[in-house]
Every structure is written in structure tokens, then in C-alpha cells.
Amino acid sequence: MELVRGLHNLPDTAGPCVLTIGNFDGVHRGHQALISRTVEHARRLGAAATVLSFEPTPREYFSRERAPGRVSTLRGKLLDLHAMGVARLIVQRFHRGFAAYEAVAFVRELLVGRLQIRGIVVGDDFRFGARRAGDLTLLRRLGRENGFEVDVVGGVEHDGLRCSSTAVREALAAADLRRAQALIGRPYRLVGRIRSGLRLGRRLGMPTANLSLQRRPALRLGVYVVELRRLDVDGAAALPGVANLGVRPTLGLTRCLLETHVLGHDVNLYGACVEVRFREFLRPEARFESLDALAAQMHRDKDAALAFFAAESA
């Protein structure tokens, strides 16, 4: 799958596409319906299945303090879209100039003129252009005038739950991993590259593999039973672990980090691209009065994770 960072970097030789537009944060079942239909139309029309997404999201741009947490990382989104057959992901920087595009100009200049769309697939609540003035009636009219198809996909429900980004975030905020899995269609996970950290875990007897998160996560901060799997090694097995997702208040820090201790394995993961799959919520993040108190709790968390996997394999 091709990753294009901004419409200005789209090659002139890119050719026509069938497009879907959205943040696709978490690629839940509702997103999957849009993407599957996009891939289907692209194959029929002989065009590239293309996703147009935004960074930051429009809600983050207009109201960063009230914007919701992120369900997934960019690497996770790339993994999901590639698996579904998307040919190209365009990550467009959302800024004042882009937000000012009037609805008709957005379609004629960007979608038709730049992207050469032969079709577009959108949800039944899709709005576009400055002040969200464009609606489905306008989009269908512009499709007739400019020679592209418009396909509108209705909402998706699973076991009585409407599959939406809001519903996924609510499940994650409550650390309800089973409900999140039902909405997404797979176990919840975060994907990223392991970076070096303070090495505090090693000093406390529990070395960790650290994944730094650029955006505030939707998942409740706390300690989880997890499985970690390398994505840059073919056939790598999932390793059991215990992970802390948080800002490390005991150390007075504020940047969110996912720190995973692999159980029973001494592995060097620095620089590796990994998937951390969340299995069970153990406890919320807490501030401790001393490093000794923190270390003692970390080892209790480790014991709880070991008990989880022991019970599962019994």
C-alpha cells in the first residue's frame, strides 16, 4: 500500500481512483463496510482504492482540548487498511486553508481535479467543505455533473450495538475490552516502534519495551494483561506480558507511554515494530509515594498477569 503525505505529494501519474474519506480511527466494523465497498468498486472500475484521511483530525484542529482520544496509531491504521486491500492512503494535513475549501470547490478542484475520482463511498452522515455545508444531495448532484459514482453506506450494527468511533471510544474509556472487540471485529491493540526510555523498569527488576504515543489514547490509562508480537519478523509468536499505559505520575511526567514487560522472556526489542494486544484490565494508573512502592506494585501486577495466562491455559 502506498502512503502519500499530503495531496501535494500525489504523483501526477497516480491515475483515477475510487475514494472514501474519513479519519478511520481504529478501523471498526462501520469503517470496514466503507472500505470493503471502496475496494469492490475500485476493482470493478479499474481504479485505485484510495482513503483520504487527516492529520490532525478536524476536531483536533478546531478544538484540541475537547477532541476525543485516539483509538489507534498511524501504524495501526496502515496495517488495517493494507490488510483490507486499500491501494493508497493519503494523509492530508488539516489546516486553515484546507478547512476553508467551499463544498463545491472541494469536490471539483480536489476530488475531481486532483484525485480523478471515478467513485466515492461515504457514510449516511457524511458532510464536507467549509462549515460542513456540503451534504449527500449536493454530492450526488456533483457526481452527475462531473461523472463519478456516489455510494452511500448505512450504519453498521453488531449484536445490537451501532459500530461508531464514539461507541468504540466509550468502550475503551471504560476499559471494556470485550465490547471494544465486538465493535472493532478483532481484539484491541496498539501498533508502533519500540524506543529507548529511562530504563527505570530494568532498575526495578522489570525491564520494559516502550512505545511512545504521539496523541492522547482513547483507552483508559492503567495496567493491562497484554500480548506483544513483532511485526517486522515473519511468523513471530505472540509473547505474554503486562503493560502500563500512562503518564507515569510517580515520576512527575506527562507524556503518555505504553510500557510492556514481556513475561518469562529476556528479549531485546529496541527498534522493533510491534503490536501490543490488550487482553485484560488489571487496575487504573496510580501515583506511588516511592519507587520502592511502585516496584512492589509492578511485581504484584506481574503476578496477576501470570495468573491470567495460567488460568487461560489450564
TrEMBL record:
InterPro entries: FAD_synthase, Riboflavin_kinase, Riboflavin_kinase_bac, Riboflavin_kinase_bac/euk, Riboflavin_kinase_dom_sf, Rossmann-like_a/b/a_fold. Pathway: Cofactor biosynthesis; FMN biosynthesis; FMN from riboflavin (ATP route): step 1/1; Cofactor biosynthesis; FAD biosynthesis; FAD from FMN: step 1/1. SUPFAM superfamilies: Nucleotidylyl transferase, Riboflavin kinase-like. CDD domains: FAD_synthetase_N. One of its GO terms (biological process) is riboflavin biosynthetic process. GO terms for molecular function: ATP binding; FMN adenylyltransferase activity; riboflavin kinase activity. It is an enzyme of class 2 (transferase). Its EC number is 2.7.1.26, 2.7.7.2. The keyword Zinc-finger does not apply. It holds the Pfam family Flavokinase. Residues 183-310 form the Riboflavin kinase domain. Signal peptide: none annotated. It catalyses: riboflavin + ATP = FMN + ADP + H(+); FMN + ATP + H(+) = FAD + diphosphate. Keywords: ATP-binding, FAD, Flavoprotein, FMN, Kinase, Multifunctional enzyme, Nucleotide-binding, Nucleotidyltransferase, Transferase. Belongs to the ribF family. Catalyzes the phosphorylation of riboflavin to FMN followed by the adenylation of FMN to FAD. This is Riboflavin biosynthesis protein. It comes from Sinimarinibacterium flocculans. The lineage of its organism: Bacteria, Pseudomonadati, Pseudomonadota, Gammaproteobacteria, Nevskiales.
